[in-house]
Design a protein that fits this description.
Low-confidence stretches: 16-34, 114-123, 241-247
Shape: globular
Distance between the termini: 43 Å
Number of helices: 5
Mean pLDDT: 78
Amino acid sequence: MPEETKKSCVGRWLRVSCGVFAAVLLAWPCVAAAEWKSVQSVTMGTAQVLEQGALTFGVVSPIAYGVTDRFTIQSHPVLALLLVPNVAGRYRLEEARTWVLSGAASYKQSFFGSAALSEQARSSPGEITVGPVGTWYPERRLGLTLGSSYHVRLGLPPEDSCVAARAIDGRSCSTTGHGVSGTIELHGLLTESDLLMATALGRWDISRQSIDTPTYTVAWLHDFGRFHLLAGVTVGEFMMGELVGETSVSRWTVFPVLDLWWRL
């Protein structure tokens, strides 16, 4: 199958799947969580974890489940359906009245192996991240989250200089890369039903001595009772760019963010 046809199929599959998923969930009678009483009850993008037995899921957002009152596990179903199994966890280490500190880790592995993927996705099929994340609450309606992580990328192509040297002396070439990333996120509780979020994310590839394009997001989240609506805008690299490859959409630097999610 030609590469352009494969790219088109991937994009069409994503649109249809998300549409069907949204229609099913909107028709599903479920009980949503109560409105936010303080910003400390917000778990999205913070160091907070879900209480035991709580479940959150969305059309775009990952599925998250509170295994215990201190440990939350999550996975992104869209990536899993694209043969990119993934899992992430967050464990609350310590908590006080005005702050909370957690440890986070994640793993993803790509088995898609299609020409529809970008060169970056084909050459870096696996990634492991681990690091701390902390949230400080200067007052009841405001939260500031800082996070950092160390990441290891598996399956990278060897550097050209190493390939040339290997042909001469048979040396081995590393296919593993590593780097660090940092996030800063601000949550402001406007009302008990309205939440404003602003996020900045940056990554430094130590192995290649390069800095990825920073990503900035501003979003508004409203609790409608049965479901939550998130709407915003992101400036940076297209979130699914490495899956769909080089297309006119994947080259966008400013794009909308829209999601529906539930908490049970």
